[in-house]
Design goal:
Layout lengths: L3 E10 L2 E10 L2 E8 L4 E9 L4
Antiparallel strand pairs: 1-2, 2-3, 3-4
C-alpha cells in the first residue's frame, strides 16, 4: 500500500511521454513509471529508508 506520494514529474523518451511517480511504502521509496505510448508500468526501488 502506498503511504505517501512524494513527487510527480514528466519526461520524454523520443516522442513518448513518460510519467514518473515517486512514492513511499513499507519503509522503502519507489518510482513508478508509466509509458503513455504502450501503456506499461515499471516499478523501481529507489532506496531503503528508515522511518522512526
Amino acid at each position: 500500500m502506498v503511504e505517501k506520494v512524494n513527487q510527480v514529474w514528466n519526461s520524454r523518451e523520443g516522442i513518448t511521454r513518460v510519467i514518473h511517480i515517486a512514492v513511499s511504502a513499507a519503509g522503502n521509496d519507489y518510482i513508478l513509471t508509466f509509458n503513455s505510448d504502450d501503456f506499461t508500468w515499471t516499478v523501481h526501488v529507489s532506496e531503503a529508508t528508515t522511518h522512526g
